[in-house]
Amino acid sequence: MAKILYIGDRFATSGHRAAAIKRLGHTVDVRDPYQQFDKMLRSWRGALHYRTGYTFLQSGMVKWIESLIAEPSIRPDAIWVDSGELVGPACLKVLKELKCPVLLYNVDDPTGKRDGNRFNSLIKSIPYYDLIVLVRKETAEECEKLGGKRVMRVFRSYDEVEHKPFASDQDIPAAFKSDVAFIGTWMRYEKRDEFLLELVAKGVPISIWGDRWEKSPHFAKLKSFWRGKALRGRDYVAAIQGSKICLGMLSKGNRDLHTQRSLEVPYAGGLFCAERTSEHLELYKEGTEAVFWSDAAECADICNKLLNDSTLREKIKTAGMERIRALKLGNEDVIRQILGTIMEKPSAVTTKVNPGS
Question: For a surface tag, which of 16, 254, 256, 311 has the fewest beta carbons within 10 Å of its beta carbon?
Fold first, then answer.
């Protein structure tokens, strides 16, 4: 078993990955730069750092990392940098003094255009990583062109513990039960509000959980369907499992062909209903293990049909749960493959986790 220095957020999916590494038997020392620079990142300066790619945070980051490697207990076998947006080339040069492999795991689209200059420091750091793990084909290809030594593409993953379904539907609080659920944030350019309004117009009984919906220009029409802020922990699982149908929406600005929901929803016991993409079709048999649509009209037709057929709903939901487990796309499985790769002799190679047939 290895000693892993984990540089990333202690919470959300990053925290899930750190916990999964521990479950695999490794020793994990989590150091959270977002916690270290919390006051700075949450003040008005946070927006400035985001827009300038955290360039002006680098001197502070370097001093922080220098203090880390000076600790006698910090002698890792590998370093896992999660997200990496705050970590520039000078930081990587300091980490390299520990003389062990350094990997980057990023589920965003750092070489895409949606987030402006947010990932400038990360992009400059690409040649310094021994392994870069990404979730998009385009991003992997672009990172190779930017000097990535070894690039690995994986599917996103659910967490075996965090997203474990309730033993019985009776254990799910009534507050989280619904017909058709969408759990996600309102985004200005994604037009999720307009999509959901089309579903409403076609008689689909939707329930919305998520942040920033009050900023939507259509919130007055959607307010009665909004059930509350972003969900976490067991509440998140309850809302997925407690729905008859759970919608999954992509971020087009992030070049998504699948998202975390694509794995989490079926694993947590929900019936996954999302946009038809090549990656969704690679993961699930349409109409058997999940249902897909090309526009709001098709989505509404599918939802209304399924709401009137409980036998078919249960059949698809059960098949989806079985499929996602058979694919072995949980955090533990994916992390086992990543750590196995980083511990191998380095070579210039692009690898992809195959979801199977």
Answer: 311
